[in-house]
Amino acid sequence: GLASILPGPSTQVVQYVAQRVKGPDGTVAELPGSYLGPLLRLHRGQKVRINFRSKLAEPTIVHWHGLHVPAVMDGHPMHVIDNGETYVYEFEVLNRAGLHIYHPHPHELLGKQLYQGLAGGIIVNDEEESKLELPSGEYEIPIIIQDRRFDAQNRMAYVPTMHDRMMGYYGDRILVNGRPEMALDVASRAYRLRFLNGSNARIYKLGWSDGTPITVIGVDGGLLETPETLPYVMLAPGERLDVWADFSGRAKGSEFTLRSLPFQGVLPKMAGRMMGGGMGGMGGGMMAGMALPVGSDFPIFKVRVTRTTSDSPKLPGHLSSFKRYTLAEVANPAKPIPIGISEAPMAMLLNGRPYKFDDVQPNERIPVDTVQLLEIFHAHGGEGGGHGAATQSEGGHGGAGGDKPQGGMGGGMMGGMGHGMMGGGMGGMGHGGGQSGGMGMMGGMGGGMMLSMAHPIHLHGQQFQTISRGIGAGEAEDYATVKDGFIDSGLKDTVLVMPGEKVRIIKPFQDFKGLFVYHCHNIEHEDMGMMRDFLVE
Ligand code: C2O
Ligand code: CU
Ligand code: CU
């Protein structure tokens, strides 16, 4: 087995030194045998103090993903501490019951630190939820899913190439709660499975192997109003899912698996072609990373019914009540705050610029205690052929790249795909002598990237509602493989935006002023600068 999982050679052993959380419900439960941090259990209304001490030889800070806390308690990258320093967090748990995450948030180091194990779950409970008497104790199981690569010594290896940074860093082994090959021995009764996608980049399409639909009772921000039954559910990095898994009536000895089912459209089309033909220039890293291709069919964990019982709780018809805003209540019904996704050479951007601390634009200044309409869209998706090459200044590089056959390929792709910036930049790389073979291939990939890729967009602060989605005609076929796996009826803080998709959300900005980041939760994208600040003032 992988009992000897150790941090990779280039990284020091890191750990959270967090004080045990005090308070009536503040017990700390461990995930035995895991590299993940302890599961923190908090209660709504509880006042929490956590002393975070860093033993890392590089900057870090902790963010409480999903919790609504003051800006200075939110783990903004500007608050990083150094080796030996302590950051004291004090906040009141304002959230309703739900599953959240703590993870590092230093800019440009998040991917590595999260990968090496600096993360854990936070379960908040409240009175409304307790009254439901949902399965608890041994019948409530956290399922933190991560994919990892291991080197020849069986150590986790985080060594992203430029290609990994563009696509996200994918592993070829699936770990649940920090352990491989998870198998759950269950009784024939209902369980509550609390899913959290803690992967850096991998998106899952969760489904039962025998075709049983998935009954969802909650998402990122807590319980839904009523249960929803779906054929499968999409789970992107940073997203959570509360699942009612009813094994009652199952025979003793029966076995089935929770799988990630096949889907398309998450990665740029061209990347697939690249893998077939483009090995030379890109090196082995890409193949290694795609040993378990994104969108392929693979098991996540196995369930074995080992005990029968006739004593199972019933699924409540009504789960919870929470405030839902209407367009009439938002400050800007006709003028949504834009969150434009763009993919540029060697960069992934929001609103056309890479992250720079405090670089807030007029539309990123939000009056406190308002509710806002936001629109997330692909800024360059679906533009006409040739448009980009003609109008982007970087398009000129594409032409220069044309001196080399490979560079020409990059530039040519671009022209055809209508985005001069990407192909132009990549094509230009073709001048790099010995590198030209590989970079020419990247030019080709750049062409494919014009079709864009999926991004899980996460906004700090309070949870939001997803009120509408729209998809471009060109992407409809791929979209059909994922479209029945979204749950828009609950409160979210991370939303998967598929290629060509436009998503409208309503989000409150209440209680706390200050800088709060929003970013892509494909962590490699975030590290590349696909992050921006909101200044709530
Ligand atoms: Cu899960 Cu900004 O974070
Ligand atoms: Cu967050
Ligand atoms: Cu992204």
From TrEMBL:
One of its GO terms (molecular function) is oxidoreductase activity. Residues 24-128, 452-537 form the Plastocyanin-like domain. Residues 395-410 have a biased composition (Gly residues). GO terms for biological process: cell division. It catalyses: 4 Cu(+) + O2 + 4 H(+) = 4 Cu(2+) + 2 H2O. InterPro entries: Cu-oxidase-like_N, Cu-oxidase_C, Cu-oxidase_fam, Cu_oxidase_CS, Cu_oxidase_Cu_BS, Cupredoxin, TAT_signal. Its EC number is 1.16.3.4. Keywords: Capsid protein, Cell cycle, Cell division, Metal-binding, Oxidoreductase, Virion. This is Multicopper oxidase CueO. It comes from Methylomagnum ishizawai.
